[in-house]
Specification:
The complex is a heterodimer of chains A (about 375) and B (about 425). Chain A contains 15 helices and nine strands. In chain A, about 50% of the residues lie in helices and about 15% in strands. Chain A is globular, with a radius of gyration of 21 Å. Chain A has helices spanning about 50, 60-65, 70-85, 95-120, 125-145, 170-195, 195-200, 210-215, 220-225, 230-235, 255-280, 330-335, 340-345, 350-360, 365; strands spanning about 10, 25-30, 35-40, 155, 160, 250, 300-305, 310-320, 325-330. Chain A has a single domain (about 10-365), classed as Cytochrome-c3 Hydrogenase, chain B, CATH 1.10.645.10. The longest helix of chain A is centred in the first third of the chain and has 29 residues, at about 95-120. In chain A, a hairpin with a 2-residue loop joins strand 2 (about 25-30) and strand 3. Chain A is of the alpha+beta class and about 375 residues long. Chain B has about 425 residues and is mostly helical. Helices cover about 65% and strands about 0% of the residues of chain B. Chain B has helices at about 1-10, 20-35, 40-75, 90-100, 115-130, 150-155, 160-170, 175-205, 210-220, 225, 230-240, 255, 265-290, 305-325, 335-365, 370-395, 425-430; one strand at about 405-410. In chain B, helix 7 runs antiparallel to helix 8. Classes of the chains: A alpha+beta (about 375), B mainly alpha (about 425). Strand 6 (about 250) of chain A pairs antiparallel with strand 1 of chain B.
């Protein structure tokens, strides 16, 4: 007698240990196989884009901290670039170099978090997260030294950066990027990249084909893992990235394992960029004087940066007033997440969790 | 008068000597005998004494191991672990227990109450009951059962039944997944466990744990050296049965929240938590009895009391369990089952073939153990290495579809974009 069975609907999230926040997947499951996934977002919606229309351009910078709270500097930078483009503000050399240094430090911190959380989703019992946190803490210490905040930095300003670096910053940074972190990344290579269990869990899981990646307009490590060399820092250089020597790691298979390797490699490349930036760091002012209630001329501007998660774009429309007329954010988390359904169908629950971990979403940015 | 005399006997009969804990119980039994107690009373009192000893040991272990596990794993994760409450945070487990007792016990409305309540209790029993047949020293086991290994095997699968009860009665999808996984794992991993222990039974010719320790003492050879392959198979299989990483798929926190104990709270959850530690200690005790010589340690047991050696060995094995838990990621369920069927079971069968041949040769040739056993140690260690290498070489998953290294690009081609259209009229945007 055949056993009658029917698919079960399981809510993965919004409260689940590994949905990285309040993201919800309604998975239809046949045994352990996923038949269908419905993605539901919006649990952390704070209507930032609408709130921004009632605040001045400078007052909007803290919103960008709270969008991708794991990469606040990148958000600050992207937003300030768009307003500067709109208002035609010149940024001094020193500020541009400082922006590069902090954006790359932020990339290291964010990728540490992403890698640790990803291995945690693979089932390692908190250890990699703790290791990654240890390295991230050191970067956050530098942020605290410079701007007083660790997570929501609010450091970039329209026309420069808020504060110049303190005297003890450069020696501390030198210790970090030359002694501490390279050793840690070697450790990551040994512990994670060559780990048989991680290979078994992450290889051929969460596959993205190049066509799929381009059709879904993915960006960041997700796009590069599919074998497409694309990085805003190279394709559309902002700040002083065109003066820096660095490589873009690109994968072959488009699976979760490639993404992890790419993140670890990108952290090493970030250190390379920081070394060059510190070497070339010019003197001079760290900020051009811009009125706090800046009134850019009527018009619109779109600028994009390579945030740790992908292409983070800011679209600002001004009507000549002190507040943006319309503000839109192209959040890489949201757009990268759109392929989750294609990546998980036919795989098991465990694979779905690994896939979600490898996309590295941030719900604060996802819902804004 | 007799009462006083027997009390004197206790004092004179070096009852305080910690080298043999059984002196105490022996003295108590002697008093009963002197007082003219019937034989059955002595029997019952001795059983009660042994039970009391084991339960107090297990209870103590469950409390202490919470601290040990959290502290050791904390160190592995480059943090401190509990260090606030009492010296070195030693009072942390007590605070945990008090917190768990104070919590409200929630029970899903549609859960069958009896099964739901019984499951954590049933989960705790096997770990304690297993200790009954294990020897703590010479002549020092609660029950010197001749089929001790059979008893252990029977009890060790009872835990999975309790997990299934918990998962099924919780009426929760995650819990159901957990219990489904446990049953699949039980079916797969019982086989390598039984087969690997069969090798020991064949070699020693006894199923009595005390007898196996005596065999190792008699021939001066640890079982881990004689049968390293069986040890590896058994170690991995029990760590799967214990639900510890790399095989903790039954409660896989990152996938199915808490697995079978998702719906449990308060002291019922506390029982699950404690029973997990108890089972780990019980399994460590089994490993140290069967493979590491139990209370015997070459000449060491003449100086140090056997039960101390035994506890030392138990905690050594337990540390390895904590170590694997602190370092390894988890397998997926299909990989875990494939590992049991494709790797461990054939390996265990090969081990049995090897061991049977060795036993036969030993008996037929009539050579003395002094010559045969060292040769067997060398042969078996080499064979274990060769078999594991062969399995890794031919069965390990291969990912050779594409090159594995990353490519590096220092310059990328930027496709020329179509000409940007003129920005929309201000009035149009506002519509």
């Amino acid at each position: 007698m055949p056993i009658k069975s029917e698919p079960v609907e399981v809510n993965i999230g919004p409260q689940h240990p590994s949905t990285h926040g309040v993201f919800r997947m309604v998975a239809k499951i046949d045994g352990e196989r996923i038949v269908d996934v419905k993605m539901i977002v919006g649990y952390l919606h704070r209507s930032m884009e609408k709130l921004a229309e009632e605040r001045t351009f400078t007052q909007n910078i803290p919103f960008t901290d709270r969008m991708d709270y794991l990469a606040a500097m990148s958000g600050n930078l992207g937003y300030c670039l768009s307003v500067e483009k709109l208002a035609g503000v010149e940024v001094p050399e020193r500020a541009q170099y400082l922006r590069v240094i902090f954006a790359e430090l932020q990339r290291v911190a964010s990728h540490c978090m992403a890698t640790g959380a990803f291995i945690n989703d693979c089932g390692a019992w908190q250890t990699p997260v703790m290791y990654a946190f240890r390295d991230r803490e050191k970067v956050l210490d530098l942020f605290e030294m410079t701007c007083g905040a660790r997570l929501t930095t609010n450091y970039m300003r329209i026309g420069g950066v808020a504060f110049d670096i303190p005297d003890e910053f450069l020696p501390a940074l030198d210790r970090l990027i030359n002694d501490d972190l390279p050793f840690r990344f070697e450790e990551y290579d040994q512990l994670l990249v060559g780990n048989e269990i991680i290979m078994m869990r992450a290889r051929d899981v969460g596959m993205v084909s190049p066509e799929m990646a381009i059709n879904a307009s993915l960006s960041g490590p997700l796009l590069r893992s599919a074998g497409i060399a694309w990085d805003i820092r190279k394709a559309d250089p902002y700040c002083v990235y065109d003066r820096m020597q660095f490589d873009i790691p690109v994968g072959y298979n488009g699976d979760a394992y490639d993404r992890m390797c790419i993140r670890i490699e990108e952290m090493k490349q970030s250190l390379r960029i920081i070394r060059q930036a510190v070497h070339d760091l010019p003197g001079g002012p760290h900020k051009t004087d811009v009125p706090l209630a800046i009134r850019p001329p009527a018009g619109e501007a779109y600028s994009r940066v390579e945030s740790p998660k992908g292409e983070l774009g800011f679209y600002v429309v001004s009507d000549g007033g002190p507040a943006p007329y319309r503000w839109h954010v192209r959040a890489p988390s949201l757009i990268n997440l759109s392929v989750l359904r294609e990546m998980t169908i036919g795989k098991s629950i465990a694979d779905a969790i690994v896939t979600l971990g490898s996309i590295d979403i941030n719900v604060g940015e996802l819902d804004r | 008068m007799t009462m006083l005399l027997s009390l004197l006997t206790i004092v004179t009969d070096n009852w305080w000597d910690i080298r043999d804990l059984s002196n105490v119980s022996g003295a108590v039994l002697d008093i009963i005998d002197d007082l003219g107690g019937p034989a059955w009373l002595i029997y019952i009192v001795s059983a009660l004494l042994g039970t009391l000893a084991i339960i107090s040991f297990i209870g103590g272990v469950a409390i202490i191991n919470i601290w040990v596990e959290r502290r050791v794993v904390g160190r592995m994760q480059s943090r401190l672990g509990p260090n606030r409450l009492g010296p070195f945070g030693l009072l942390q487990p007590i605070a945990d227990a008090i917190k768990l007792m104070q919590k409200e016990v929630l029970q899903p409305k549609s859960a069958p109450g009896l099964i739901f309540t019984l499951a954590p209790i049933m989960f705790t029993i096997p770990g304690i009951a297993m200790m009954a047949v294990l020897p703590w020293g010479r002549n020092m086991s609660l029950a010197n059962v001749d089929v001790g290994i059979l008893y252990i095997l029977g009890l060790s699968s009872l835990g999975a039944l309790a997990v299934f009860m918990a998962g099924y009665s919780s009426n929760n999808k995650y819990a159901l997944f957990g219990s489904m996984r446990v049953i699949a794992m039980l079916v797969s991993y019982e086989i390598p466990i039984v087969l690997s222990l069969l090798g020991i039974v064949l070699f020693t010719g006894t199923m009595n744990p005390q007898g196996i320790v005596l065999f190792q003492e008699h021939y001066w050879s640890l079982m881990i050296l004689l049968q390293p392959l069986a040890f590896i198979i058994y170690f991995f299989s029990v760590s799967a049965e214990l639900n510890r990483t790399p095989a903790d798929i039954a409660e896989a926190e990152s996938e199915i929240v808490g697995g079978y104990h998702t719906e449990y709270s308060g002291m019922k959850f506390g029982l699950f938590y404690a029973a997990e530690l108890i089972n780990a200690v019980a399994v460590s005790a089994i490993i140290s009895t069967l493979f590491l010589g139990g209370w015997w340690a070459y000449k060491l047991d003449e100086i140090v009391p056997g039960w101390m050696i035994y506890i030392g060995k138990i905690y050594t094995v337990y540390f390895v369990f904590v170590w694997t838990r602190g370092t390894l990621p988890r397998f997926r369920i299909d990989q875990l089952l494939a590992f049991a069927w494709k790797w461990l079971t054939p390996m265990a069968l090969l081990n049995i073939v090897m061991v049977s041949a060795e036993v036969t040769i030993w008996e037929e040739s009539g050579l003395s153990a002094g010559i045969v056993l060292p040769i067997y140690m060398v042969i078996n260690t080499a064979a274990a290495g060769a078999i594991i290498y062969a399995f890794v070489r031919f069965l390990a998953p291969k990912f050779e579809r594409f090159p594995t290294q990353l490519r590096f690009y220092s310059n990328i081609d930027v496709p020329s974009l179509p000409a940007v259209a003129a920005p929309p009229d201000r009035a149009k945007v506002s519509v």
